[in-house]
Every structure is written in structure tokens, then in C-alpha cells.
Amino acid sequence: MINLQPYENPGYFVLLVVALLPAIIIRLNGRRSHWYETLVSFVFLFLMFDGRKWTQGVALIGYTIWQFAIVALYLRYRTKKDSPNKFSVFFWSVVLAIAPLTVVKFTPLFDHGRSSIVGFLGISYLTFKTVGMIMETRDGFIKDFHPVKFLQFLLFMPTISSGPIDRYRRFEKDYDRTLDREQYLDLFGKGIDRLFLGFFYKFILGYGFGTMLLPNLQRQAMQARGGFLDFSWPLIGVMYCYSMYLFFDFAGYSLFAIGISNLMGVETPKNFNYPWISHNIKDFWNRWHMTLSFWFRDYIYMRFVFFIMKHKWIKSRVTIANLGYLLLFLIMGIWHGETWYYITYGIFHATVMICTDAWIRWKKKHEGLLPHNWFTHAVAILLTFNTICFSFLIFSGFLDRLWFH
Amino acid sequence: MKLAKRLWLILGPIFIAMLGVVTLLFWPGNYGQSRQDNVEKAAVSLSPNVFKGNLLKSAAFNEDYVPFIGSSELSRMDPFHPSVLAAKYRRDYQPFLLGSAGTQSLTHFFSLQTAGKELNGKKVVVIVSPQWFVWNGIQRGMFSYYYSNLQTNNFLEHAKPSDPMAQYAATRLLQLPSGSSNSTLTEAIIRIKAGVPLTQFQKTYLRLSERLYDHEDSLFSQLFLRDNRPTIAKGEETLPSQYDPWVLDDLATQMGKGETTNNKFGIQNKFYNDRVKPVVGKLKDTQIGFDYDYGPEFSDFQLLLDFFSRHNITPLFVIPPVNGKWAEYTGLRQEMLDQFDRKIQYQLRTQGFTHIDDMIDEGNQPYFMQDTIHLGWRGWLAMDNSVRPFLENKQTTPKYKINDDFYTKAWQDKEPRLIPDMRGGKSN
Fold this sequence. Notes:
heterodimer; A: mainly alpha; 15 helices; globular; B: mainly alpha; Rossmann fold; 2 domains; 5-stranded parallel β-sheet; 5 strands; 51% helix; 6% strand; transferase (chain A); transmembrane (chain A)
């Protein structure tokens, strides 16, 4: 049985582009064929979850029915005339939508590291999409349920396994529009560009850092254990090398997903915007894994802050914001996995966020005390870069191997 | 026209590049032989490319090179290292070093897949480190480091369904991340494990990808070779021009004495300063529980034996000791090492592998080990005493009786005390 994992090797791209060729030609003529593009998506989804992965395929179908029902019912409830818009209904809809993901994320913890049978590749990203929809429905931004568009959005093939996380209203616009030849050519050109930048990132730089350099440095760091906290120079190498690997591998992957979306006429939002030139941690989270951090910002942090303010449980805005950061990054850490290093990574980022906020407030109070010029800017970038690389060293789990194995 | 032009601007460069790559990689001819210079370099380079590729090994084994299969000790290139001795005294063999930190039986088995027929009927030397035989076997990362899809490709092309060797190797491959690095290969490995013949599609795929990997090998594997020849040459300069084992042993004693002055373990000064001194206090009695008597490595090792048997190869197995003073300090039990020796020798001797240089008890010989677990100075010379006659004299063609029980968990877990002791004095 042929099984194809998305973007795993050059052959995949050849097959995918050949399959999309008729759709591209149709689009070059200023038209579009939804049914053909859907057929291609279906075939590639099938190839992704067939063979030995068939259990995941079944899980995906079950999951889709589950989410379909929740979103459809909640939308119907909210679009009823004089909908009471009760918090409890909203709350339970979100809980039910998150339930499968929660089960999948916690199964390994309670079942000796085994993965859950309801899990499949991409479950997190699909959950982000539906929860986002429920939130926007509560706010009244999504007003009608369109079964076909919902499925197209949820199961959009280029982004199914690892994002970027699109938003329903944005996707819907792209889905409905028909581009003329000029517009499509622009988008097509951009898509091809992104695919090739992605090749360079993932298959050349990511491979170089992750497969060629990293194991070497890790081995040296393991051999040099024994000093204070098992610290050694190779460990510093591991830190930078892993950070570079993480970026180029994931940014490359995201570029593939965006590039293929572009060929299908959809402008999936970008996921990375030169994160290494961030001048502080807040700037960084606006540039790194953007669709995820925006999702967490809009649907966890903001909701939390408004909720607390509305109920006036805490007076101090600073305290609310700090608690919000802690909540956001703790959830993000736990989402990555229930290990000490992911959770530490979350707490670390929350702490740096809180400190940065305090620093910015201090600077505002003492305006003019510190100059802003190219030098201070460079120092800020350097400091941010190193802080982030350190956090990725925690995230990598290598310290776990270094200290405890 | 305008559309064609714009499309050409977008896609033209890709077509040209793709044409170039496809021509380069799938060209039916071959890209010439490896350069002699590179074979010499590769013989002592210890670089991962040498394990991954095909070309350099095949070229070397078609000449007088003899594979020296081992691990990190091969990088201890003092003047008594086998490569230095062979070069200095113009022996009629030259070692081709296959071993680096982290290479164990499984890596060697797959690495030799790429050079099977060139080794038919030849001799090899295998240094079997007791440290390979930790309970969980080879580390995943280390296996990946020396792994290439070319190895698996060659393995799959020759694997016959329902062959215990192939089935065991496939099982192991699937337990390691490398086994899932290419999904088409993974599917094929699963079939071999299940004892089912490959599909026509898989066979065609293997044939096509072999050409690709071979071209890749001939284009790239000769780049990035570490050049250790200067180290070898430096070692040669230190040695007397006449070969005399007694003189050499004196020299080794002197050098060992001169280089182990800052510690009581007989460890080379530099190694002691860099790697031991900072942590020496913490390491006391940390190896009391170490055990090399059980685990998958015993079956992985069987893969090598099976491979030797099928290619009528005559191997000499060298079993090195652990630095005695160090073992005493860290609490590593000599009794456990003896049990390991007993088990591995049973596996060798019952199957007809009788060329064994057992040095497991020599850990307290002065200047025998360069550091904690690696042969050096007099240790290399002691090994040479069995290697030289083995390689220079004709050996009778061996008759092996391969026993597939060594692939089982039962053997991996077998208590050495319950095994007949077949060591009975040193033989050669």
C-alpha cells in the first residue's frame, strides 16, 4: 500500500504538483474547479492515512463528524432568533470540541507513553480551527453554517498536518472568489517562490543543522558531562544548532503549506516573519509560529483578560496581564506534551514576558534615560536571540537526556 | 504570448535545474572510480561517509585492504596503532578502519551490505568492545549517524523472504528511527520482517533508487573525508626501522610511562585532564551496576557472524580489556567482564569462529590501555601479536554452523553462568 506523508521528500511534491496541474491550468484561464481540487485533496488525504495508518484515518473521520456536529449545533443555537447566547452553552461547546485533543494529549501520560487510538496527525491544528470558529460564532461574526465550506476549511489538505492555522472567515473569502489570470499568476509565482524557499530551508539548512551537525554536537555534549550542571561548550553548540534546526525545519514546512495553498488559490497566512530580528520577546511572538501565537493571544489571553475584567475579580491590569501570560504559556507548554521540559519552557517564556512588560513600563516612566539608537537596538536583538535559543534548549528535551539518562 | 512568457519566468529556472539534476542522478553510466588517493585517505579517516557509501569500501576491498571493524579505539592513533605498524613495516596488508565512537554490530552489518561481494573469502579483524553490550543495545542517534538509505537499499535487494537473518535485521531497523526515514523503504522492511516477498513496485523502486544512491555516493562520498594520514606518518617516524617485537615493547613502555604522569590510573595525561579530572570524584563506584551480559547486541552481533559465514569470510575477533585500575576505582566488576567473555565466546566457538584473541584479563598490564577503555601502546602491540600472523599466513577455509537461536530474546537474556565455558585457554 502506498502511503505518502505530506512534504516528506521531493517525490511528494512532484506527485502533488502533477495532480494539481489541471486545477492550475483551469485557474490560469481565470476559472476554478472546486470539485477537481476537492478530488485531489481527497486522494492525498487518503494516501496520508491509508496502509498502516488506517486507524488514524478512521479517527479523522470520527473526529470530523464530532466537530461538524458541535459547530453546526452551536451555530444553529446562536443564529436562532433572540438566541440567549448563554455562557454555559458556549463553554460546553468549547469543552466538547477540545475533548478529543485533550484525550489524545493526556493518553501517553496515563498509558505508559502509548498514543491514543482517537489521535491522528494534525488533530491539534484542526481543533484550533474549530475552537476559533465557535469563539467567533459566540461573538456573532460567523452567522451561517455552510456544511461544504466548513469541511473544506477544516480538512484543507495543504495545511492539515501542521498548519499554519487559518481562520474561517478569511478562508471563506478566498474560497468564494475567482481570480482573474493576472491575479492568479501573481499568486502562482509567489507560491512557487515559497516552495523553493521552503526546500532551501527544510531540505538544505534544516537538514544540515538537524541531521548533520546536531547529533555530533549532542554526542560531544554527552561525553563532556560531569561538570557543573553538565555544562560544556558543545552544549552551547547544541543550543544554537537546535534553534536553527527548529526554525528552518518548521519555517520550511510552513512555506510548503502556504505555497501549495497559493497554487490552489488560497492565501494561507504566513507563520514566520524573520523571528531572529525580534528586539524583545513580545516582538518575537509576533514573528514566530505566528498563526499559533495569534490564536493563543486572541482565544486564550484576550478572552481571559476580558473575562477577569468583566467580573472585576482583580483590579490591577498588570496582574491580570501577567496571569494571562502565565495561563497562555502554561497551556502552550502542556499542549506540547506533559514533560518537565515543555512545561518549564512555558513558564520560562511567561516569566520573560512578564519581565519584559515591567521593563517597558519602567522605560516609559523614565523616558529619555536610555537612548534609542542602532547600538541599543542591536543589543536588544542579541539579547532576545540568546534568550530564545536558551528557551529552545529547554524545549529540545536534550537537557533531560543530559541530566537524567 | 504574454502568459507563456510569465510562466517561463516563473517555471523556466525550475525546469532547467530539474533537467540538470535528473540527468546527473539517473544517468545510466557511472562517474568513474574512486581516486587511489581517496582510498588511502578513507582507510584511516573514520568518517561517517565511509560507512554510508559503497564506492570507497568496494575499491579498498578489491585491493589489499583488510577491514578492521571496531569502534572508538580505532581513533587512538599512537605509533603502535595497527595502521601505523602495517605502513611502517610494509606488511602485505593495510588496515581499512571501520569504526568510530558509537559504531556497533548493527552499524557494521548494514555498512557491510554495501560491500558484500568484494569481501567473499577474505579475512577481517573485529575488535569486540564489551561496552557495546549494554542492556539496551546501540543508541538510536548513533545508528542514524552512520546510516544511509543506500545500506538499506542494498540490504533489501539481497534479502530473501523468511530468512532469519533478514527478518531479525528488519525487526531491528524498524525499532530505530532510521528505519522510518523513507516510507517506501519502510513498507519494504515491514514485508521482509513478515517474511513476505517484496512487491514488483518495491523491486522496481529499489532498482531505480539504487542508481540514484550510487550516483550520489560517487559524486559526494569522497568529499569531506577527514585526513588522518599525517597522524599515521608521524607515528611511523617514531618507530625504529627494523621490526622487533621486543624493541617495540620497550619503546611502548617508555612512551606510555612518559605520557601517563598526572594520574594514578595509567590514563594518558591529556585524556585525563580533559575528560576525567573534572569529574573524577563523582565517578567513584559509579560502575558497580554496569552489566554487559544481556541485551539485543548479542543478536545484532549474530548478524555479523551470519554475514561472515555467508561470504566465507575468516574473521579474527579481538576482545579488549578495561583499564584495571580504572575498573577498580569505578567499581566495574571483572567478574561481569569474564561472564561477558564466556557468553560471547560460546556464541563464536559453537558456530565455528575459532580465531579469537582474548585479552579480557589483561586490564592490569602496564601501559596496555591508553585511557579507561581504549587500547593503546602495549595493548596495540599485544593485539598485533595475533593480527600479524593471522593476516600474513594462509588460513584454512572455515566451516561455520550458524545457529539461528542466537537471534532470540532467550539468548539475549541468557545467564552466562548457565552456558558451557568454551574458553579453555587462548587459541589462535
